[in-house]
């Protein structure tokens, strides 16, 4: 016993020291896949001494404001065009540090089995933020539904529509409210995280779906002042593991796609 006791005490002290040295960070996410994926990242990061706490936000605006204000240390919910737009509009000092997953946006309908079935003058709801609203208009352009002005890049608006043969009426709604609009419109463009929350299947249910390849890959963002801190590398490396990739592929069955 006299030999074993120092060994036991040493092991206990080592475990206590590791726990005491663990760094805790708060990460802002939207409910659904982003939160679920980071729950899978947590135990991997914990082995590297990083304790992750998740805070869920119900919209796309607050997570960047909270990050810029230092209320959280990172967020995972947005793509690069959206982040660029927020930085330009609000002056946030925030940077992307790693890619995560892609959520091809879909157009859904309770009234029509195909987009071609939407009648002339039909109502189509799109997200009211420039990035997600713009990506829907680009999707409709690519499918031959409308034509847009040249040079609109990733942020066209309804004012940039030059041809609309079916005279569709575009109704802009908050992205989080898009599933509720389904009963009132002919079709609604809904982001994958909000679609899954509403019980929709983002692979089988859309009557139009975005090409998964493109600029809308999601990312992990941190404050510019933090981007070189050791915990950032641990977070990104923990996310970019085979275990997390397998979780995404198994859990979401093509609705969410790994981008690393």
Automatic annotation (TrEMBL):
It is a lipid-anchor. The keyword Zinc does not apply. GO terms for cellular component: membrane. Its main location: membrane. Gene3D superfamilies: Periplasmic binding protein-like II. Residues 1-21 form the signal peptide. SUPFAM superfamilies: Periplasmic binding protein-like II (SSF53850). It is found in: Membrane. Keywords: Lipoprotein, Membrane, Palmitate, Signal. It comes from the Bacteria. Belongs to the NlpA lipoprotein family. This is D-methionine transport system substrate-binding protein. It comes from Bradyrhizobium huanghuaihaiense.
């Amino acid at each position: 016993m006299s030999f074993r006791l120092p060994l036991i005490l040493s092991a206990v002290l080592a475990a206590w020291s590791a726990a005491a040295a663990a760094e805790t960070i708060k990460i802002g996410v939207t409910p659904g896949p982003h939160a679920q994926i980071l729950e899978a990242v947590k135990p991997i990061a914990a082995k590297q001494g990083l304790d992750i706490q998740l805070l869920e936000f119900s919209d796309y605006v607050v997570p960047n404001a909270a990050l810029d204000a230092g209320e959280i240390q990172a967020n995972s919910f947005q793509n690069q065009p959206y982040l660029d737009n927020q930085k330009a509009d609000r002056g946030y000092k925030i940077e992307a540090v790693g890619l995560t997953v892609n959520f091809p946006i879909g157009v859904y309908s309770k009234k029509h089995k195909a987009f071609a079935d939407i009648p002339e003058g039909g109502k189509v709801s799109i997200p009211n933020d420039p990035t997600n609203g713009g990506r829907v208009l680009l999707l409709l352009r690519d499918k031959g539904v409308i034509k847009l002005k040249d040079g609109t890049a990733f942020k066209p608006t309804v004012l940039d529509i030059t041809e609309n043969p079916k005279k569709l009426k575009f109704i802009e709604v908050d992205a989080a409210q898009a599933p509720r609009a389904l009963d009132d419109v002919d079709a609604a463009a809904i982001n994958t995280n909000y679609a899954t929350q509403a019980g929709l299947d983002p692979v089988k249910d859309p009557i139009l779906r975005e090409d998964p390849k493109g600029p809308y890959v999601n990312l992990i963002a941190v404050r510019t002042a933090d981007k070189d801190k050791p915990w950032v590398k641990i977070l990104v490396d923990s996310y970019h593991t085979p275990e997390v990739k397998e979780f995404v592929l198994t859990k979401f069955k093509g609705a969410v796609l790994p981008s690393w």
